[in-house]
Amino acid sequence: MIIGILGGGQLARMLALAGHPLGLQFIMLDPSEDACAGVVADQIQGRYNDIAKLELLAQKADVVTYEFENIPAAAVEFLAKKVPVYPPLLALTTAQDRLYEKKLFRKLDICTPAFVPINNLEELQRALKEISYPAILKTRTQGYDGKGQAILRRNADLTTAWEHLNGVPAIVEDFIPFDREISIIAARNHSGEIKCYPVTENVHHAGILHFSKALKNDSAQHQAADYVKRLLNHLDYVGIITLELFQVGDQLLANEFAPRVHNSGHWTQNGAIIDQFENHLRAILDLPLGSTDSSDYAAMINLISTVPSREKILQQTHANLHLYGKEERTGRKLGHINICTSDEATFNKEIGALQNIVNSG
Ligand SMILES: Nc1ncnc2c1ncn2[C@@H]1O[C@H](COP(=O)(O)OP(=O)(O)O)[C@@H](O)[C@H]1O
Ligand SMILES: [Mg+2]
């Protein structure tokens, strides 16, 4: 059985690593010469809108999935006529546009921050009478890792922010002074079986995820699981989905969803019985989903821009190091460390030590 993947970055690499023990093979389509999934999957080098390359992928793969949501929807539409593609096209096109995404949340009675769609500077100025400062302006499409966003604190910020985002269609939303940011990752297979992982608390700096911690038996689990199930069933979803939420008191507000495996679920590689990557593969192959039960304490630290010494990291005896084989570059995700244990004191001690190592480069 051969799985095709659109994209050959670290998520494709970890999907392939999870699939090899199940006897699966992988082929990915990626434009770059040194796609980091290349060591564990065959590569078709080419652009996502290259019909001949897509044709070749469809020929070689039994089922196709994707590792990021900024691939052209037309590529998925083309492939879907020739080979099964999961998650479904509607999930992709909705997640690609923040306006469609927020409207879907509202339709499903999933609470969101207040938002207004914007097509020009006048509309932005008018919206800031409805939405109060501070607010956040986001391009409707193509944003990731905090890119395509600007914070608005006063009227004087509007022109600069609008120009900074190149005047493309956008939404403006309330800036939420959240108590914490959480995400929930869930899997659904063809038969409609759903499994949710424990919610994860996420810490971002400048829009980039730095740290995630699994929250076992957390009070937000029930509401978060209810929200994500509404999405999964409405979209007749197949695969792993990630729903990002802001928590204010005991209220949850949906920020966005990703139709794919997610950085905030990397801890599941060592902290859950079956990880997000394997459950994604099981879902798209209509295999039974595996247990999402987790260790008592599980967390992940991202390695961004530089990779500290391997020796130092591995001195922490619970550290599981996952490197992506990518060259160092500012702001680039290069790997992560998982720490999973049943002992709280060990957990806190090792996380503290690892954070010191990571912060000192
Ligand atoms: N309305 C908001 N209020 C407060 N913080 C926000 C808001 N929107 C985004 N952020 C912060 O910026 C991060 C990135 O924004 P997000 O909408 O998730 O875009 P993306 O992950 O696609 O770059 C969020 O994880 C959060 O930390
Ligand atoms: Mg996000």
Q: How does this structure look, described?
A:
- With 361 residues, this protein is α+β, with helices and mostly antiparallel strands.
- It folds into three domains: 2-85, Rossmann fold; 114-174, ATP-grasp fold, A domain (Dna Ligase, domain 1); 180-359, ATP-grasp fold, B domain (D-amino Acid Aminotransferase, Chain A, domain 1).
- 31% of the residues lie in helices and 28% in strands.
- It contains twelve helices and 17 strands.
- The strands form three sheets. Strands 9, 10, 11, 12, 13, 14, 15, 16 and 17 form a nine-stranded antiparallel β-sheet that branches.
- Helix 1 (10-19) crosses helix 10 (276-284).
- The longest helix has 16 residues, at 344-359.
- The radius of gyration is 20 Å and the shape is globular.
- The mean pLDDT is 97.
- Residues 244, 256 line the site of magnesium ion (MG).
- Adenosine-5'-diphosphate is lined by residues 113, 136, 143-146, 173-176, 181, 204, 207, 244, 255-256.
Task: Please supply descriptive tags for the structure shown above.
binds adenosine-5'-diphosphate, D-amino Acid Aminotransferase, Chain A, domain 1, 9-stranded antiparallel β-sheet, alpha+beta, 12 helices, single chain, binds magnesium ion, 361 residues, Rossmann fold, Dna Ligase, domain 1
Sketch the major β-sheet: 9 strands, antiparallel
**Head-to-tail CA distance between termini:** 41 Å
Beta-strand content bin: 25-35%
How would you spell out the order of helices and strands? EHEEHEHHHEHEEHEEEEEHEEHHEHEEH
Mean pLDDT: 97
Please write the CATH class name of the largest domain.
Answer: Alpha Beta
- What is the share of helical residues? 25-40%
E-strand count: 17
The number of helical elements comes to 12
The H-level CATH homologous superfamily of the largest domain, spelled out, is: ATP-grasp fold, B domain
What oligomeric arrangement do these chains adopt?
single chain
Reported by name, the CATH topology of the largest domain is D-amino Acid Aminotransferase, Chain A, domain 1
Roughly how many Å is the radius of gyration? 20 Å
Contiguous low-pLDDT stretches (5 residues minimum) are: none
Heteromolecules bound: adenosine-5'-diphosphate, magnesium ion
The coarse silhouette is: globular
Task: Give the domain tally.
Answer: 3
Structural class: alpha+beta
CATH architecture of the largest domain: 2-Layer Sandwich
